[in-house]
């Protein structure tokens, strides 16, 4: 059956002529069905044959990444891959990329330089404008002050007594003390510390004038910054030196500023002229650069695919071992047996194309390593297989729980999420994803939606099953339905009265309905499908449904656990492990069914006969007081069928006997077998060829493996797996060691786990009941209290609208998102733990073929 | 009686599903997978229905109206 067991694998050896090696491996990448083994594991990446080529690929990848960022920065759309792959060979592509890179970086450098001088000129222009306005302002205010003092001197008709003393002061003429100054721009946020430091370092002998000019591109970094134009006046050479240093420290750009007004004007004009010139140059440069980038964008995708493939090809070539003569490369690869034909065809074609004298030799090898696990999944099954793989990759050819998970997972989810309305909402969402899958597959959906899109078929099945269980629970948004006919309950005194609403309206119609309850009219022939609508909203609804759902959960759980144990039998039969069948499968079946299988039968019996037996009591006293069902006559209702006491004693004994059978015989028999084998090998000295062949066969094909020689199934395999991972080369695991203590402990753990697990796993299935109870109660609260509370309570239309809004939000947010998530997780747990621990080893490793298809998806 | 009738309905569904898969013209190995899926579905649905049906045959508790 498809998917039930992983694909058959074979380790094959390929001997590829050195001159055709690259093309051959590339052709195999096109096929994508070979997982190459690393035959040079002991060598570092630098010691390998093709280390140099990989370095070149890395360099090309770096160049392509550079182009990608440049193209993205320029906002040019990258053309989808053209079908013109391979129009450039490796060396030509490398040369082309290198040339394009130097061209582009030169263009970038030029444009950077031009941009810098452009920004510098802009700042200079600003400085010239602002600083000259400082001087003009100062000059005009100085003139005014002078005029005012002169006028004041004339006004003083009566000379002041102190006038002569102040004469010298009045007569003071601003001597032409040569004040130095420097002008420039500084970022606004640095202005305050800048001024403080200037003041301190010159001890106040300076004067700073500044004005903010808004956002300006900084010449050094090219980023826009809030800047201010400043002019510092100072006296003396030492102050100048200090100020220059401070300017440098604060990244203040200084600009020459002539004292002379005419020279200022001249400079201004010069700057304007140069700016215009630069502008045209810049534009021309940008156009040129855009042209180059557009040409690159056209081919970028194709090139990056080619480089990725080249790199992967050389990585694969590095895994091959080189023959001493350097004429032949030897590869070892795992191939699915079914794909061998395609591989052969590809090899033949590649040999033809390379026109090499001899073709590639392709032959199977004998190995002791466990092969990789490869499940061929479709778009429908892959998400379900993902659920199983997330727990552990199946051991090679072991039974795959994924097959059953496809149905049981959504089913158990739906048991917890049963509601027609919620199911329909989820179905609409799932259909949205499924029907638009072609369109959505191409989009980048983000984390959460992407995950839901990946699991769209899971959601689809979950919703369909939810609708089904919703019909069984008879609930649509927690409202009862009557799709399957009228209720089977009626008033005890008046058989024609079945409508609970009428009885609620008029209590006198049927008073007994409120005391002893409604009576079932047709005992033994209940509501045809699902829960009878009469239960909805009654006082005893919870009591009744809890009992029902609890028992249902137990039965479903025991059925699923039995299915798991039966799958372990399929594995044992497939691997010809009769010993495990006898010492594990059979006692396990007996143990589980003697206790919990019997409980299920009692449950069904109680339901089908209407017995009032107390099953808790029965089961507990089956242990405490075997052979006594009816409490010594005190509780006769507990005896459900004749011979029950004897049967219970027998079942109990069977369960107790099966525990030591699970524990002891298998390790002892394994030990005896091992001793026999060591005796044999001691007498022969070498490993017998039959054994060799047998071991090979176990990991190869054919359902009918020689049944007699059943070697240890899973006690030996872990050692092999670890050996395979560590060793790499074939031939590990010849002289396996048998550690009786280890095997015994393993078996003990296995037994204890099973015996305790039988109890705890059965109890664990009660989560089905708990979650389904929580779901129906939550939806009932939202419907009854929020929505109907307002409508029935005679709320205003506005209040009803608000209540409806709250109801919708709660339904979507709490029930559809949180509740479904929790039901999903619980269903996941039931599969991973309760179901899979009965048979699933999950210690295999995934088949990871060298395939261009997957390599194209990876980032560069 | 009703229980066996219902079981028969589920058996008919199983037969229908198996027939559709059988005449679907898929390769043999995927037919086997689909048969398993159909059978698992029918078994799950039948279990659920059957348990609820059985549980209601002789109810020990009566629905008592609130009020």
Automatic annotation (TrEMBL), chain A:
Coiled coil, from the record: 83-117
Keyword Transcription: no
Residue stretches spanning the membrane: 411-435, 456-473, 552-570, 590-609, 645-664, 798-818
Molecular function in Gene Ontology: ATPase binding; proton-transporting ATPase activity, rotational mechanism
Cellular component terms (Gene Ontology): vacuolar proton-transporting V-type ATPase, V0 domain
Pfam families: V_ATPase_I (PF01496)
Example GO BP: vacuolar acidification
Domain of life: Eukaryota
Subcellular location: Membrane
Chain segments carrying region Disordered: 705-731
Predominant place of localization: membrane
Family label: Belongs to the V-ATPase 116 kDa subunit family.
Function according to Swiss-Prot or TrEMBL: Essential component of the vacuolar proton pump (V-ATPase), a multimeric enzyme that catalyzes the translocation of protons across the membranes. Required for assembly and activity of the V-ATPase.
Identification of the protein by name: V-type proton ATPase subunit a
Automatic annotation (TrEMBL), chain B:
Assigned protein family: Belongs to the V-ATPase e1/e2 subunit family.
Membrane topology recorded in Swiss-Prot or TrEMBL: Multi-pass membrane protein
Any Gene Ontology CC annotation: endomembrane system
Keyword Transport: yes
Keyword Ion transport: yes
PANTHER family listed in its UniProt record: V-TYPE PROTON ATPASE SUBUNIT, VACUOLAR ATP SYNTHASE SUBUNIT H
Name the record gives this protein: Uncharacterized protein
Compartments, as annotated in UniProt: Endomembrane system
Domain of life: Eukaryota
Predominant cellular place of this UniProt entry's protein: membrane
């Amino acid at each position: 059956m498809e998917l039930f067991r992983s694909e058959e694998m074979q380790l094959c050896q390929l001997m590829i002529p050195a001159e055709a090696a690259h093309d051959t491996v590339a052709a195999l990448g096109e096929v994508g069905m070979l997982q190459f083994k690393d035959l040079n594991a002991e060598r570092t990446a630098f010691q390998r044959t093709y280390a140099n080529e990989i370095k070149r690929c890395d360099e090309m990848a770096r160049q392509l990444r550079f182009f990608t960022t440049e193209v993205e920065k320029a906002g040019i759309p990258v053309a989808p891959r053209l079908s013109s792959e391979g129009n450039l060979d490796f060396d030509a592509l490398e040369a082309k990329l290198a040339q394009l890179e130097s061209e582009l970086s030169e263009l970038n450098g030029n444009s950077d330089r031009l941009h810098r001088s452009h920004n510098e000129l802009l700042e200079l222009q600003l400085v010239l404008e602002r600083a000259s306005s400082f001087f003009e302002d100062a000059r005009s205010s100085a003139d005014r002050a002078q005029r005012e003092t002169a006028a004041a001197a004339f006004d003083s008709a009566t000379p002041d007594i102190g006038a002569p003393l102040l004469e010298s002061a009045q007569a003071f003429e601003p001597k032409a003390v040569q004040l130095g100054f420097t002008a420039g721009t500084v970022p606004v946020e640095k202005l305050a510390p800048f001024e403080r430091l200037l003041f301190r370092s010159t001890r106040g002998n300076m004067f700073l004038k500044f004005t903010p000019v808004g956002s300006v591109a900084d010449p050094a970094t090219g980023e826009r910054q809030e800047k201010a134009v400043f002019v510092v006046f100072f006296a003396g050479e030492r102050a100048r030196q200090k100020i220059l240093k401070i300017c440098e420290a604060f990244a203040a750009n200084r600009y020459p500023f002539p004292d002379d007004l005419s020279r200022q004007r001249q400079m201004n004009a010069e700057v304007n002229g140069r700016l215009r010139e630069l502008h045209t140059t810049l534009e021309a440069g940008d156009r040129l650069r855009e042209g180059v980038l557009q040409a690159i964008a056209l081919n970028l995708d194709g090139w990056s695919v080619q480089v990725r493939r080249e790199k992967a090809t050389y990585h694969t070539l590095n895994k091959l071992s080189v023959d001493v003569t350097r004429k032949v490369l030897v590869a070892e690869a795992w191939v699915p047996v079914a794909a061998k034909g395609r591989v052969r065809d590809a090899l033949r074609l590649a040999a033809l194309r390379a026109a090499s004298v001899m073709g590639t030799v392709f032959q199977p090898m004998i190995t002791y390593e466990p092969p990789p696990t490869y499940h061929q999944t479709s778009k429908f099954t892959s998400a379900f297989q993902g659920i199983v793989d997330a727990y552990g990759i199946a051991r090679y050819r072991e039974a795959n729980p994924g097959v059953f998970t496809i149905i049981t997972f959504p089913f158990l989810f739906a048991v917890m999420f049963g509601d027609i309305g919620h199911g329909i909402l989820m179905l609409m969402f799932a259909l949205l994803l499924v029907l638009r899958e072609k369109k959505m597959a191409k989009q980048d959906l983000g984390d959460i939606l992407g995950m839901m899109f990946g699991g769209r078929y899971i959601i689809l099945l979950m919703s369909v099953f939810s609708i089904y269980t919703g019909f069984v629970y008879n609930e649509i948004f927690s409202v009862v339905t009557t799709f399957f006919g009228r209720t089977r309950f009626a008033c005890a005194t008046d058989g024609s009265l079945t409508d609970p609403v009428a009885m609620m309206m008029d209590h006198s119609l049927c008073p007994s309905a409120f005391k002893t309850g409604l009576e079932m009219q047709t005992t033994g022939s209940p509501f045809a499908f699902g829960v009878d609508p009469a239960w909805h909203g009654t006082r005893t609804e919870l009591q009744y449904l809890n009992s029902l759902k609890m028992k249902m959960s137990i039965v479903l759980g025991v059925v699923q656990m039995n299915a798991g144990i039966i799958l372990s039998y399929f594995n044992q039969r497939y691997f010809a492990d009769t010993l495990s069948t006898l010492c594990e499968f059979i006692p396990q079946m007996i143990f589980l069914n003697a206790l919990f299988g019997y409980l299920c039968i009692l449950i069904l019996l109680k339901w089908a006969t209407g017995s009032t037996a107390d099953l808790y009591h029965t089961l507990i006293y089956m242990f405490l007081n075997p052979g006594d069902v009816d409490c010594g006559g005190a509780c006769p209702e507990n005896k459900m069928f004749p011979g029950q006491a004897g049967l219970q004693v027998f079942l109990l004994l069977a369960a107790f006997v099966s525990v030591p059978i699970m524990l002891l015989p298998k390790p002892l028999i394994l030990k005896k077998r091992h001793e026999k084998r060591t005796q044999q090998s001691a007498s022969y000295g070498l490993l017998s060829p039959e054994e060799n062949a047998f071991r090979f066969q176990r990991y190869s094909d054919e359902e009918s493996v020689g049944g007699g020689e059943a070697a240890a199934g899973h006690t030996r395999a872990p050692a092999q797996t670890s050996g395979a991972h560590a060793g790499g080369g074939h031939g590990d695991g010849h002289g396996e060691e048998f550690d009786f203590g280890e095997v015994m402990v393993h078996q003990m753990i296995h037994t204890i786990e099973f015996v305790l697990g039988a109890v705890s796993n059965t109890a664990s299935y009660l989560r089905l009941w708990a979650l389904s109870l929580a779901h129906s109660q939550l939806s009932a609260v939202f419907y009854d209290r929020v929505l109907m509370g307002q409508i029935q309570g005679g709320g205003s239309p506005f209040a009803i609208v608000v209540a409806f809004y709250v109801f919708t939000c709660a339904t979507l947010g709490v029930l559809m998102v949180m509740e479904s998530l929790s039901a999903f997780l619980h269903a996941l747990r039931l599969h991973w733990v309760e179901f899979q621990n009965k048979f699933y080893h999950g210690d295999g490793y995934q088949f990871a073929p060298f395939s261009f298809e997957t390599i194209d998806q990876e980032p560069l | 009686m009703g229980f066996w009738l219902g079981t028969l309905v589920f058996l008919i569904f199983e037969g229908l599903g198996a027939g559709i898969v059988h005449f679907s013209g898929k390769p043999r190995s995927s037919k086997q997978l689909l048969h398993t899926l159909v059978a698992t579905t029918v078994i799950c649905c039948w279990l659920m229905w059957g348990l609820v049906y059985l549980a209601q045959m002789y109810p020990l508790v009566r629905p008592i109206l609130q009020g």
